[in-house]
Fold this protein.
Amino acid sequence: MKHLFTFQLQHRDGGSKARAGVIETAHGRIETPIFMPVGTAGTVKGVHQKELETEVKAQIILGNTYHLYLRPGLDILQKAGGLHYFNSWRHPILTDSGGYQVYSLSERRKITEEGVTFRSHIDGSKHFFSPERAMDIQRIIGADIIMAFDECPPYPCDYRYAKESMELTHRWLKRCCDHFDRQEGLYGYEQALFPIVQGSTYEDLRRASAETIASFDRAGNAIGGLSVGEPAEEMYHTCELVCDILPADKPRYLMGVGTPANILECIALGVDMFDCVLPTRNARHGMLYTANGIINIKNAKWKDDFSPIDEEGPCMSSRFYTKAYLRHLIHSGELLGAQIASLHNLSFFLWLVGEARRHITGGDFASWKNGMVKRLEQRL
Amino acid sequence: MKHLFTFQLQHRDGGSKARAGVIETAHGRIETPIFMPVGTAGTVKGVHQKELETEVKAQIILGNTYHLYLRPGLDILQKAGGLHYFNSWRHPILTDSGGYQVYSLSERRKITEEGVTFRSHIDGSKHFFSPERAMDIQRIIGADIIMAFDECPPYPCDYRYAKESMELTHRWLKRCCDHFDRQEGLYGYEQALFPIVQGSTYEDLRRASAETIASFDRAGNAIGGLSVGEPAEEMYHTCELVCDILPADKPRYLMGVGTPANILECIALGVDMFDCVLPTRNARHGMLYTANGIINIKNAKWKDDFSPIDEEGPCMSSRFYTKAYLRHLIHSGELLGAQIASLHNLSFFLWLVGEARRHITGGDFASWKNGMVKRLEQRL
């Protein structure tokens, strides 16, 4: 194992808890804070790998264990030499553990101490994930950062369920770590395992979970169970409480968050890594994020607006195509509409975290953030 | 009108009737023989304009009058300054007249001497196209090459219907030309009007139609009503008969053709221009055209084939992505699958006509063509 996973904290903002850092992985460097485009089934929907590099300027993308396990399946991924070789994305990859997707199946899954039995959404076939199995699968997928197998409780969630679920997540984490540490990666490079803080929106549970997760002393730590329907203020409060406990010398990853404003607010609380389907999913429905606010491109007001999608846009496509043309494409259900809007939104998210980083190192993050958050939430 | 439409014949093949030439238009140069990707609603499905330039190396694309008329509509297109400004494709464009799409609506349209009344496939609204209206609409769209409003009879078609339909097409052509010649283009550049030979598969009708069409002495001529279900031999026979009558000093456009082998055979008969939805439509279903034959990427044999889609592939994407990955994407209904396969197929069609041109000017077209046609139709 030549390649060691490292995190260097480079700057701390004076006016907030925001940080700038660098993660090194076997597949390259990630400058934090960072947004990670979601590539569910080994592809960021509608975007070429080359475009992810040159237009979006993604530094790391996600893969979903549940989806990749079902299709193309582990035999294919292992024969390929892992996901990096399978999809030709040679930069860092993070995989979730499959837990979140499995729980989303609700009617189709059963949770026991041992693990989760579930049925495929594709063909109804029966499968079983345990903490050990989730590690084995993520070894085969070969992501640079892999996630512990946790339970993500719904929101709202009663205290008793939240506590039992958190305790199960902690017991599963022990099993994940034990199993993970017994083996090396399959492809000659190191993988880092991140544990996940749970505990719903209960302060004492979140505190206990953050302390437990920190005590495992892994290469990075994640915050799960947020952005599941709770009010933004509750998300921020929980996020801050947890960030204050998680060690400062390790990256903090807030799972599944969020809007541009959510991301800036949580950077201010000490989060380093984000992922979310919003930029791509909303793109396909014509919702565009810009530095001046949100555009619903389906709106009739854009039908004869021949100005660029975003004059000062974050990528070539934002400046090349017009609003009227993109509206026509989305309106007509044309593939190119989803492609352009996805490129624009992802590029914008990457631009935004890049700007955040620049302002953290420049020393004016807090005031910049407060101004941006107001602009970001306007409707254009 | 500064920009005149011209065609220069550069080479004639010794062993066949194949020709190499150059068309000059207000939006640039087209080297023939050429294949024109179909951009139905102002977009070649799944392919960025920049990719059409740099990967596919398209020199001219098609737009469909019927689709563009319904969406985005003429007011938007005119305000944009024509389709080139609307979709940001600044190279040559050809539009069909809408006739073919309107007839495909079958139950929803009614043909009279005056024109065709039809209902929109989108909202059922009622519309009327006449020869004059088709010219006005194509003036607004602003394509470099526009097509006469014709009737395309079905196959098979009885002699009487084919004859009456052809005569209607000829009367409509007169009206198209008279109306077209009374006006200049709206955007300061010349548009060329191509008439269309009809006559089903009846030799005497095709001969009469080719002579009539030639007598109009327009800038180029098209052959319609083929590739509508007739056997390939019948298509070739009709195509040859018509090409022999159409003037040699003007480009000949065979509408809606076809497979790679069809294209090479018809180049050998003297055709200069082709368009077809096959490369993009079949791409979306996982059928790939290569110099060594046809790949059905959905086939299980490709599931763990990690070689490039096409080692000596015509575009970067063909060489960058693997067969196993593309199979996974198409299988999973991922947008990127359609994108990659469309890029590959279109690039291949453009590569093929480029090679044909190279062999025409090189003097060995006929023998090269005979070898290629055999390879192209193999199933890999």
User: Anything to note?
Assistant: Chain B has a mean pLDDT of 96. Residues 335-362 of chain B form the longest helix (28 residues).
